């Protein structure tokens, strides 16, 4: 799989497919330097320097560039929204012809302040003093990131297996229920208790993934429909079970369950003042596991083959039905772990109707933004986690509603999903076809 | 091009034929050079310019809307409306146009038939009708026979002759030498994007083939007489349904011996596909038995059949044979990824996969930029070589190849054929299913002809083409000459007509 050397052969052995000829032509018409990409370089020619390769790749409209530019574009649109939604700033525009400096400076102030707060809330606040305060933004970011990694991986894995798992929300919901119940109902010693609670959460998600998987494999029922419907079932099941005796908190009148025992909670990483907990470590572990599963395991080979071409997979002796069920079970288990994070971590310690927030649906965005690659999902989840954490500060300090963050997230994903748009705006070479689009189309 | 001329454009896959024609049709812009129509240079910005200039094209892959009727497809893109601002589609007029064109060029199509119900040959005819209703003078047919049965090909050639009689010029892109000789007035051979020669249809097949690939090619497969051993594959009374639950294989008996090639000839759609899929465990066996080297294998899952020593080249490589997005290396282990040395327990061994890929690429002359290139970027011939390399790189008892050289260039055909014979010579039982009669005759030691789900006869490879052709059409000669078969027995030739 890792063979950077071109196949040795006489010059007349070059393949002459039309698509390659076309690719070469595209490369040649533009910057001459960019034509020396690794696989097509004839032998004997000196290897271009690493820096050159880096620059070439950066400008070759690759996925990283597009993603970064998508973020920039989204923030520009967000800036317009911030200006428009601020009545004071908007007022300066009524006399813009008379005193344009007013409008410009007040717009700049409100936008820069908002984004500065976003940054301070998510990454680092230069004014903060002391260990806890300076690490607080990162801690918040990682806290929001952890569950999104799990649900993002869940959606990405299913996607690679050819299934559009819209049900991460439902799977996370069942996961959170089982994890919480195991967390307060089982009298177990500390480490074991946490382990059991996590396994319960994963099992809950796996069961909720198994159902659409088996339906798809046996009856051909479309997984988009079944998973969406199971989301409703899961959400209302959660609302119902919270108020059942034995689950409902005896000391509270509102819909909240008993709290999870401390023995089943994910330990905090940086002391009790900072919310970041070991869920983020589990998330990294899960990312590594998913990457290994997809790229380095026989199971992953089967899943990918089935995802790309089920007919060829079947002909090669791979059981397509088995692969569909398996991918949904693993995907569900990952989503279930994401759900467990919401009740075993520091965001909450008891079931409420909103305990899973939107992590399942955000997971779809994270998976797409991460280009369905495990490590990409991790980075995308970090970005979303940062936006969430920064958004909280932006709301409290700049008075800009948290919904703007949601709008920003949506815009980023839209721009990423339409790479042609970003490339057109930034005049990038159309070097690579957008894989995401094709995989999206295939999902349906 | 002259009016009323059929000009064949001959070249290997990837030689640049289709690209040239796409330029002519305005889909691609030329980097240099110009196109002259009636002596005047022509700038084509898109297909609509080309149509206006009187150029029409029938693509290799049809551009029809499957759920529309013939008339609707023909009017698509040039819809006639009536009723003024209300803009009702003038379906009646479209139907009339279809009927007129059909009449004039003897192209029988039903204007009200829905495309998806029509056989491929008729769909192609619809494409031609569509081009003709646009009043074109020059018609480009891009590999029109690649998807057709021999009969449909014959009909297409007749249509082309009547178009020619009607004064239309035709550019006929192909890599099949026989058709070129049968129909073309002039032949231009293209290799690696350059015109390498012009020939008249009287040139011999060998001359044309040599022009095409740039060296002389053996069109007849060189082989020693077969040395058949014990029976490896025995099929008895096999009954299989197709996807629509219609009986496709209706009581087939046949035997393939070690060290022989059994060719299965027949017009496409007479049950060959279903027969093979049933043997491979891809399709349920409703009755009868399949025995592999003494062991009943019907009802086994495909993986088990493959593991038992069966190599299989499926008939549609892009659908069933390859995962196009996967690399060449991954496709080379598509059915053995979980066996040592490629997979151990749950983990894959990328180094072993890469090493084996390198060897296979070398051995089977797969022309790819690297083992990591996606298989979909290779030419058809090289894709097919990847499949053949995969299937022939493990010890086999039985090798089944369905349409092993469909849509493959001459050079690769030669290579694949020699590999098939080599496999036979090391004692593997080989079964070749092909709708190309030449291929079956060239490779096979015995030929089984399938017709409507049954083996209508088993004959020797020396049997005259005409006789096999008649069998393919379902006509059994009174004297089924069993003596012609060199094999010790022919369990399928007793039968039924």
TrEMBL record, chain A:
Coiled-coil regions listed: none
GO cellular component: plasma membrane
Predominant location category: membrane
Region (Disordered): 1-48
Molecular function in Gene Ontology: transmembrane transporter activity
Superkingdom: Bacteria
Localization per Swiss-Prot or TrEMBL: Cell membrane
Keyword Phosphoprotein tagged: no
Protein name (record): ABC transporter permease
